[in-house]
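2.7 Reproducibility. Because tokenized structures are sensitive to small changes in the input, we list the exact sequence used for Sugar ABC transporter ATP-binding protein, including any N-terminal residues retained from the expression construct. No trimming or masking was applied before prediction.
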Amino acid sequence: MEPLLKGRNLVKRYGRVTALDHCDFDLMPGEILAVIGDNGAGKSTLIKAISGAVVPDEGEIHLDGKRIHFTSPIQAREAGIETVYQTLAMSPALSIADNMFMGREIRKPGFRGRWLRQLDRRKMEEMAREKLSELGLMTIQNINQAVETLSGGQRQGVAVARAAAFGSKVVIMDEPTAALGVKESRRVLELIKDVKARGLPIILISHNMPHVFEVADRIHIHRLGKRAAVIKPQDFSMADAVAIMTGAMDPPEGLAA
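Resulting structure tokens (single pass, no recycling of outputs):
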């Protein structure tokens, strides 16, 4: 099976610091790929390179077999790559519907939309409600309530629903359960499984090993700016993954990058 998204020999330097050191990356169709690594290993830079926030100095990225070169996150979004950031990247004072369609608002048809630039709020609200319902998030009663009135889990749910609604190829999730309690984390993990069930492959960046081993199909272990190994959670323990990640254990033969 050919990877849906792959990176080869990716290099990114910040002065004398090499964040990505000839790094490779593979995401297969329909899978949840967890990316783990110690702080400073280069995980964030790798994800930023894929999502268009950073332009690599060297190397190639391919999506659906075609070479891509993003210079901004907007280009990545247009290509079907959506990212749920750790900070959620939402405007608290705006409504759920406004946040769902931020940067891609729907205008009214005809003269009012084209020349007066009026927004079709009814259509946006209907679509937002539909997307939230698909992911079982209709505990949110009012689609027009401000995001700042939602709980942490509900906010994360809105961010995931936005990514699932507009991501046609890949969804990237950066630490989606980092600031959540046990119950809210459980709901987000269920959301991740729901998104996968709809056929969207997911890149999950997380430090939470139990969550990674529960939902991931494969685990990309990042160390010192490159891929150290790719393992399957059913074949290794959490202790093994941490040992490879920290350099205490050599990657198993045949699985090393």
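Strands lie at 5-14, 17-27, 32-37, 58-63, 66-68, 81-84, 170-174, 202-205, 218-223, 226-231.
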